Amino acid sequence: MLHQRRQLLGLAAVAPFSGLLSTHAFAQAAAGTMLERAVIFAGFAPGGTTDVTARRVGERLQGTYAKTVQVENRTGAGGQIALTALKSAPADGSALIVTPMSMLGIYPHTYKKLPYDPVADFQPVSQAVQFDYAIAVGPGVPEAIKTPTEFIAWARANPNGQAFGSPAAGSGPHFLGELFGRAGSVPLRHIPYRGTQPAILDMLGGQVPSVCGPVGEFLPHLPTGKVRILATSGAARSRFTPNVPTFVEQGFRDLVLDEWFGFFVPGKTPPDIVNQLNAAIRAALAVPEVVTGLAQMGLVATPSSPTELAALLKRDTERWGPLVKTVGFTADS
Question: In terms of CATH, what superfamily is 132-250?
Answer without folding.
Answer: Periplasmic binding protein-like II (3.40.190.10)
